[in-house]
Structure formats: C-alpha cells, structure tokens
C-alpha cells in the first residue's frame, strides 16, 4: 500500500458491495468475542482484516462463512443472509480457514475432485477443475501423492485450491500465507491480486502486516471485538513514526538532521541507515527537500514500518482510549 490514505480510500460506486456487515456481535457465554463490527468489502478489491489476537477476527470470519450465527446485527454475502440463506451464500463464497483438515489418504488430485463434486460439478468438470487448480497453486509434482505427505505450506496451497474449486466471487482467507516460504508468499500475493482484478471480493485476515501492506486496497481494524472507526484510524496514521534514511555520507546526514532541528537523542543508528521520528508525510517531504538542498547524497528515504503496521501499533498502544473509544471493560476476555 503506497500511502496511509490507501487504508481508507474513497468508496467507489464502480465496485459493488459483496460483503456487508452491520452492528454484528457474538458471545460465548461470558466471553464477548465480537462486540460491534460494521464494514463493507467490495468487488475487485482485497480488504485486509487486521487486529491482535483476541480481537474477534476468526469469530467474525466464521459468521461470514455461515458456520456461526451472530447474536445481533446483519450480514450479507453477495446479497444473501448467511443465516437464512446459507446454501446461497456457500455457492458464491470460497472459505479458507487457518487450518483446514484434509483427507490424509486421498491424493491432492482426488481431494480437489471430491470437493468439486460436493459443489455439484459433474465428474468430468470436477477432474478438469482439479487439474487447473493444481497448476494454479503449484502442486503439480505432488498431485498424485496422498495429502498426508504435504508440508504445512503445501497444505495451505491445497486449502486455497479447495476454496477456489467452485469459482466463487467472494473469498474469505484466514492466514493464507501461514507456513509458506518467501517464494510461495510472493506467488500468493500475485495470485490474489489477479483474482481481485477479475472482479472477486477478497477478505484476508493475516498477522503478516508487511505482506498485507503490499496486497490490500483497504483495511478493517478490529480492537477488542469492535471495528475501529475511520476517524480513529486516520488519527493513528497521523501520529509520529520512524523514517529510515540512508545517504552516501552518513556523517554528513547525521549533522544535517541535527541542524534541521531533530533531537540528536532521537536519531537511531541502524545497519540500514538512520531512523528519525516524523509526524506525517508533510514533515517527511519537508525534511527530504531540506536534505537535498543541503547537498546530502540521499540514497533511500522511506518509513521504517509499513502503513498497516504503523497504524496497528498505534492503535494497540492505547490511543483509542485517548480518542474516546469504548474499549473492553476490565475482566472480560475476547477470543
């Protein structure tokens, strides 16, 4: 994601809403897993679902996937109610949980063929779809091996293929990059961007915020079972964060930073360059212009952390309480 503004871009009427969540809540006895969540996800976009452990992400995804009934609120997937129209929702929805059980004695190919048959694809079409997906997720060398021999990352790729087997227009992905090696992570990012470009609505929950920064068009932040307001997210984006600067003359860079008014005690030296705290893009642009005018040979100038990570860390630091948001009462756990 290229800038903080990309986290909450203007709503585009060109992209129909395929996931609509309004005032949804779900508890398990005294455990309030989801308290109050509202958001939209649109066709042609990847929406990131971001929050710490216990913020309600998995419970929310289970409700979207028709596997849990909300206590309050409404959900629409492709215009359908997951409670009253579960079969219709499952026809348009592909669901990839964090851990999906596989039939250990079935081959990868047979597992996909059987999944396709469960979606009422005729036998020849199921076989063709299985072959297509095996190539798509790069499991050709293991196509005729039993799924029990797959590594964690290979099982994740099989799980994604199973979610795609009926060509759904909405995808729910819970930690899809878990267990993938760097090359497979890049391939997954390229694939998901391609699927979004084809007009699908993709909602991705992930703890790997650096990857979501490169993948997501927008983000939904959860805190203690509540969706974080746009105002609070925007306030977090404007808070101070580190910018990493590297120059051919590191000593000259240090002197120029001090001369620009940055407290020397707040300049951190790292192998990749000097890190200085700046509040907002305007201050960063002003500093960079000043360094160039001073003749400093700047090689790189960029945030030390991505937009999502910066926003997440700021929200997690307790700024939401200062902004007046109602956070979790003492003594209540979330899931």
Q: What share of residues is helical? A: 25-40%
* CATH superfamily label of the largest domain: P-loop containing nucleotide triphosphate hydrolases
Q: Strand order, biggest sheet?
A: 5-6-7-3-8-9
Structural class: alpha/beta
CATH topology name of the largest domain, in short, is Rossmann fold
- The oligomeric state of the chains shown is single chain
Contiguous low-pLDDT stretches (5 residues minimum) are 1-11, 319-335
CATH architecture title of the largest domain: 3-Layer(aba) Sandwich
Q: Overview of this structure, please?
A:
- By secondary structure, this protein is of the alpha/beta class.
- It has two domains: 4-228, 3-Layer(aba) Sandwich (Rossmann fold); 237-309, YebC, transcriptional regulation domain (Alpha-Beta Plaits).
- Helix content is 37%, strand content 24%.
- It has eleven helices and 13 strands.
- The strands form three sheets. A six-stranded mixed sheet has the order 5-6-7-3-8-9, sandwiched between helices.
- A hairpin with a 2-residue loop joins strand 8 and strand 9.
- Helix 3 (108-118) crosses helix 4 (123-136).
- The longest helix has 16 residues, at 182-197.
- The radius of gyration is 23 Å and the shape is globular.
- Residues 1-11 and 319-335 have low confidence and may be disordered.
């Amino acid at each position: 994601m290229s800038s903080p503004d990309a986290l909450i871009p203007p709503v585009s009427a060109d992209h129909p809403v395929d996931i609509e969540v309004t005032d949804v809540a779900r508890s398990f006895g005294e455990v309030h897993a989801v308290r109050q969540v509202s958001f939209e996800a649109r066709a042609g976009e990847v929406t990131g679902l971001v929050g710490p452990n216990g913020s309600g992400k998995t419970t929310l995804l289970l409700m979207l996937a028709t596997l849990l009934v909300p206590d309050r609120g409404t959900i629409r997937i492709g215009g359908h109610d997951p409670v009253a129209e579960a079969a219709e929702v499952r026809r348009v929805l592909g669901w990839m949980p964090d851990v999906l059980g596989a039939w250990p004695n079935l081959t990868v190919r047979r597992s996909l063929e059987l999944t396709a048959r469960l979606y009422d694809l005729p036998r020849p079409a199921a076989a063709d779809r299985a072959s297509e997906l095996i190539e798509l997720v790069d499991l050709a060398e293991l196509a005729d091996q039993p799924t029990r021999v797959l590594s964690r990352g290979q099982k994740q790729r099989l799980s994604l293929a199973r979610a795609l087997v009926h060509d759904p227009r909405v995808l729910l992905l819970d930690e899809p990059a878990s267990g993938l090696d760097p090359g497979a992570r890049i391939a997954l990012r390229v694939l998901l961007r391609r699927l979004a470009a084809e007009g699908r609505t993709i909602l991705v929950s992930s703890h790997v915020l650096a990857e979501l920064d490169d993948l997501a068009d927008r983000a939904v932040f959860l805190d203690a079972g509540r969706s974080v307001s746009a105002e609070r997210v925007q306030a977090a984006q404007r808070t101070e964060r580190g910018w990493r600067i590297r120059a051919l003359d590191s000593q000259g860079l240090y002197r120029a930073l001090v001369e620009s008014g940055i407290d020397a005690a707040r300049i951190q030296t790292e192998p990749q360059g000097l890190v200085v705290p700046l509040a907002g893009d305007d201050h960063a642009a002003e500093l960079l212009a000043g360094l160039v005018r001073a003749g400093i040979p700047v090689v790189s100038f960029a945030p030390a952390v991505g937009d999502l990570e910066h926003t997440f860390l700021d929200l997690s630091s307790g700024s939401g309480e200062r902004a007046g948001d109602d956070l979790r009462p003492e003594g209540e756990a979330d899931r």
